[in-house]
Design brief:
The protein is α/β, with parallel strands linked by helices and about 400 residues long. The chain contains 12 helices and 15 strands. The chain binds zinc ion.
Length: about 400
């Protein structure tokens, strides 16, 4: 008998179809969390899942649980899924691949008439990307009780609404569900790598062993607004000059910290941002990542001390606010080994690797056996309309997901 395989063409076409929602001029798409486009994507996902025989449940965070019943529905579900929301200039694969790969697994099982012992679930987590509101991965944080539902509902969006109002408006405000009441047995998330390693190593499947730790800080540097024409240079308290020195110093600081360190200042706001006023305040954000907690701790200490010293030297004020912190995550060893074995059994090249990006799977890992399956993306480009993945690689990841879920669900 020929080995069961997902339908590569069908999986590809669902990406194309979903990519039409929020389509952008250069081939990408934009579905910001809880926007009208996100709702259209959710509605389409639910229609497809119902057609594939799934029961749909929506929780108070707007997470969608598409459940394919098993023979014994008292067993905890074998779960997969990812996110539908995107960055502003996104490609067609980040997040949505994990959701559509789960759907393709269900469709393939339906075509083959296969029933599993345990139920299967495909979950869409709300707001992985953190564009319109914080924190990132908020849906899976609520489900795993790392974020209170009231706190999420009160969170302000960049459009001035609250998350609770948006959920209500879009018709995606369900009952509060956590892992305590909604049992899942394990979670396996498929995702494009969003980095260049698989392509460089010429491997098709990444068996992801964990996620590096991340911390975000908001730094506010304060000086004094003043007239550009009348204020002599030595008398200025120019927050912008001070802040740019800090940015350069931060990059120098991490330059000799090894290959695993990641430091990014991607947001920088100048006040009053007026051409003829000495800038009185600057706010910027630091995104710091490393696989080891000890390194993160040591670096955070050096950054806090170093920035305070720079501010003092320049006669500027300084405050540093914690935005969020994610501890390094280790995935379940048995599940990682299973993914590796299923990749080999399906004839794919495979390597173990760490995820540089944060994912919903990181939140699940503390509570249930969790792992991720990566597939290559061209040149490692992501969060960009130029994000590309091949139909064959997407299908390969879905096949590994299929067999890993089958082996867990019986
Ligand atoms: Zn993602």
């Amino acid at each position: 008998m020929e080995k069961l395989r997902v339908n590569e063409q069908r999986l590809w076409l669902t990406h194309v179809e979903m990519g039409k929602i929020g389509a952008l001029p250069n081939g990408g798409c934009c579905r910001l969390a809880l926007s009208d486009e996100d709702k259209m994507g959710r509605d389409l996902f639910i229609r497809w899942s119902r057609e594939a025989g799934c029961e749909i449940r929506i929780d108070a965070a707007g997470n969608i649980f598409a459940r394919r019943p098993g023979l014994d529905n008292s067993l905890p579900a074998v779960a997969t899924g990812s996110h539908l929301d995107t960055q502003p200039h996104a490609g067609l694969y980040d997040g949505i691949y994990g959701v559509l790969a789960g759907l393709e697994v269900f469709r393939t099982l339906n075509d083959a008439g296969i029933e599993t012992q345990a139920p299967l679930e495909n979950i869409v987590w709300t707001n992985e990307e953190c564009v319109r509101f914080s924190p990132p991965t908020s849906g899976s944080m609520v489900f795993t009780e790392q974020l209170g539902i009231a706190e999420l509902h009160q969170a302000k969006t960049t459009d001035g609404t609250t998350v609770g109002q948006d959920l209500q408006r879009l018709g995606y405000l369900g009952d509060h569900i956590t892992m305590a009441s909604h049992k899942i047995g394990c979670f396996i998330e498929a995702h494009i790598e969003q980095g260049p390693i698989l392509e460089q190593q010429n491997k098709t499947i990444g068996a992801v062993t964990g996620i590096q730790g991340a911390r975000m800080f908001e730094v506010r540097v304060t000086g004094q607004d003043n007239h550009a024409g009348t204020t002599p240079m030595p008398l200025r308290r120019d927050a912008l000059t001070g802040a740019t020195r800090m940015v350069l110093w931060l990059n120098e600081l991490v330059a000799d910290q090894g290959d695993d360190i990641r430091l990014t200042i991607g947001r920088f706001n100048v006040s009053p941002n007026s051409a003829s006023t000495v800038p009185g305040a600057v706010t910027f954000q630091i995104d710091l990542r490393h696989p080891q907690m000890t390194v993160l701790n040591a670096l955070e200490d050096r950054i806090r001390m170093g920035l305070a010293e720079k501010a003092r030297q320049a006669g500027l004020g300084l405050t540093i606010k914690d935005i969020c912190a994610f501890a390094p995550v280790a995935f379940d060893g048995a599940l990682v080994a299973m993914i590796e074995a299923q990749a080999v059994a399906s004839g794919y090249s495979v390597m173990r690797m760490l995820s540089g990006a944060a994912h919903d799977a990181g939140n699940l890992a503390a509570l249930v056996p969790t792992a991720m399956i990566f597939v290559p993306c061209e040149k490692g480009i992501s969060h960009n309309e130029a994000e590309r993945a091949t139909p064959g690689d997407l299908a390969a990841g879905a096949n590994v997901l299929l067999y890993t879920m089958l082996s867990r669900a019986g």
